[in-house]
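It would be a great kindness if you could assist me with a short task in structural biology. The full record is reproduced below for your convenience:
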Amino acid sequence: MGTTQLNAAGVGAGDEVVVPSFGGADVAQAVRELGARPVFADIDADTYCLDPASAARAAGPRTAALVPVHLFGHSADMAALRAVGEQHGVPVVEWEPLPRTDAIDAVRRRQYATSLGRRLRGVVAPSVPEGVEHAFTEYVVRVPGNGRPDRDAFRRALRMKGVDCGIPVRVPAHRLPEYASTVRLPQAERAADESLSLPLSAAMSKKDLQRVVSACNGLGGLLRERAG
C-alpha cells in the first residue's frame, strides 16, 4: 500500500492524518507525498499498534483519516479505532494488512512462539490476550534494563553467540529529523529503546529454538541485576 488508498479515502493537500509513530515512518512519508501532514499518536504497549485513546487525542478538525499499522503479526484494535473514526467523521485506513501465510506455517510459528514465551527468561515475551490471534510474522521481545544501551548490548551479545536478531524500529517517526515533532509519546519511545526481534520461522528446528532460549536466558540474569 502507498498513497493510493490514502487518495481513495479522500486525503489531500492540507489535511492531517493520524498515524502511529512506532512503525509508522512509511505511512508518514506517504502522507507527506500527498501534501498532507502526519500527526503522530502513541501505541499500545502490548500490541505495538496504534492506541485508540492516543489516536482520539491526536485527531482534530483537519483530520482526514486514521491509519493504523498492523505490526509483527498482531492486528490493531480495529473496532475501537473505527469508533474513534466515526466520532470524528473520518475513515480508518488499514496499512499493510497481515500477510497471508500457509496454514501449516502459521500453526508452527504459533507453536514455536508459545514455546519461546514459556521458556525465555530475562526478556519480556510478547503478550497475547485470550481470544486474540497473533501471526508472529516477527517475534519481538522487550529487553528490560536501562533502555537502548542495554538492548543494543544484549543484541551484540546474542549475535556473538550465533543468534541472528534485529531491531525492528530504532527511532520512532516523531523523533526523525524530517518531522522534528515536539510531541512526547512515551510508549513509542520506550518500545524503540527496548524492542528486539528474535529469529522465528517455521523452518527452525527444536535445536534452533533451544539455541535462542539458551543464549537469551544466559544473558538475562545480568540484565535483571543491573535493572534492580
About this structure: The two ends are 44 Å apart (CA to CA). The chain has eight helices and five strands.
